[in-house]
Amino acid sequence: MAAESYKVLALKYRPSQFSELVGQDTLVRTLRNSFQSKRVGHAFLLHGDRGVGKTSTARLIAKALNCVGKKEGDVEPCNSCSNCDGIQLGRHVDVIEMDGASKTGVNDIRELIETVVYRAASARFKVYIIDEVHMLSNSAFNALLKTLEEPPEHVKFIFATTEIKKIPSTVLSRVHRFDLKRLDSEVLCKHLS
Fold this sequence. Notes:
- The chain is of the alpha/beta class.
- It is built from 8 helices and 5 strands; from the N terminus they run H-H-E-H-H-E-H-E-H-E-H-E-H.
- Strands 2-3-4-1-5 form a 5-stranded parallel sheet, covered by helices on one side.
């Protein structure tokens, strides 16, 4: 018998479509409408407690932006094209995930800004996902501000944070903010059954 590789439950059951984002109805409805009307913002801020699905949602948005297998007018990513597979596994060259807790300085952001000008290699959009964005220094936020204000049309930013109060108001005013909430026990029981 072949040994099966172990996969953490959070990764095994990570939502792969908007319809699987349980308990985040406002976020799902807003994103669906923006994708259907082809008016998707250039920067998103996902805020919520640990474990509510900020990174999963960020990857899902990146998939929906770059999916080449979905039909015209469809919002859900196909989950079978090369872009969807690469993004789901965290290996896509045009979806850059950065940990704000370990890359907090202005030099880290300057490196990011220098790569923004280059178009995506194999996807429609270059997506920068910055997790724990509240850990960036004030000078790093200031360095990012101009690019966040007027990004190239092929670039999208997705920020994730647990501490919204630490993010400067100048940044908050330039992003679409979504507050993810924990699931109520009733919703969770209904979903599991």
